Amino acid sequence: MSLLKNIKILDLTRFVAGPHCALVLSDLGAEIIKIEKPKNGDDLRIIGPKISNISLWAAVLNRGKKSFSLDLKSKEGRKIFLELVKSADVILENFRPGVMEKLKLDWKTIHKINNKVIMARISGYGQNDSTISRQAFDATVQAETGYMNISGHDNKPTMIGTVFLDYTTGLNTAIGILAALNSRNISGKGELIETSLVSSALSLSMGAVPDFYLNKKDFGKNGNSDRFSSPSNTYKAKDGFIHIMAGSDDRFNGLANAMDKRELTISKFYNTPQKRIKNQKKIDRIVNNWTKKITIKEISKMLSKNNVPWGKVNKFSEFLKTKTAKSFITSGIVGNRNIKVPECAIRVINKKGKKKSIVPELGQDNYKILKSLGYSEKDINYFKKKNII
Predict the structure, then answer these.
(1) For the CA atoms of 98, 204, 318, 292, what is the dihedral angle to 10 degrees?
(2) Domains along the chain with CATH numbers
(3) What is the pLDDT of residues 238-277, one digit of tens each?
(4) pTM of the shown model
(5) CB count in 10 Å sphere of residue 154
């Protein structure tokens, strides 16, 4: 049995954070009805490389969901949605603050129709920030929260290479929904939960928040070196680059053994973690002088023997060819084509649920969903003609 069997989620989200949240819950067994705009659907469907007229990004995030096209701005569309609410467990939305209220689909209205339903709201800056109701994207929030100024090596603002705030917010929302479902099991009532890209950014800042308020220190660039331990950096090898983490005493001892430089462990410059941080540039030079003369294979063998964490710096394409990567890849089906997609990052051991592989076309499930609500063929044809679905 799937962990979220019999949980029905109405997914009003688009782009990344909300769809990623819904994908995780779908893979854990929930039924996801993705509600999209008629004709064009989620804007994510047209972004980037495509297969069978759907973007690969949308194929990854929509896998296993049902697609229901519905015009929520129309009176009939809103009525159909509220019929769906009656049997729903969760409503997930990521419109700008105030949009659900304009659609007359606010929490008070929803809760009155179904007091067991959970409503999860995702925004850029928080629902209560009346001064910021503009649209937010991962990159714009990276800019505003300072993350572009902690990334990269030079003084130029550098965007982190993927939409990590979107994905983090999606995961935070999924956790909130699961907690609300547990609370409902006890109280019998649904909850309203909220997440935002800004709160996700702050949650990932380690000790930077108290460090600023206590010590007036800014959260700045640090390149590839670890902020709080040394030697922990990316080093040049004879045939590429390798990242080594040897900041703690036991790991530094292991690195010194691997380099055949055991005298470093008793040096007055390097015999404590604090001294190694203070003399970071010097110890990095020593490590790099060792790594640059030998191959990654030789380095990794010696580091593993001495229990020192390391990672070869790969291209993404190189990683996908590894046995490790292949063990976390599954299949998606777009039309009559099979594609490779990441599997759910959460594995449930000893529970074999049916794999959700099909990527739905826009409105693929309109007929079944409307029929289940009691609408007739005549009604469905009318909705099509009026572009309500």
Answers:
(1) 150
(2) 8-203+328-385 (3.40.50.10540), 232-318 (3.30.1540.10)
(3) 999 999 999 999 999 999 999 999 999 999 999 999 999 9
(4) 0.94
(5) 8
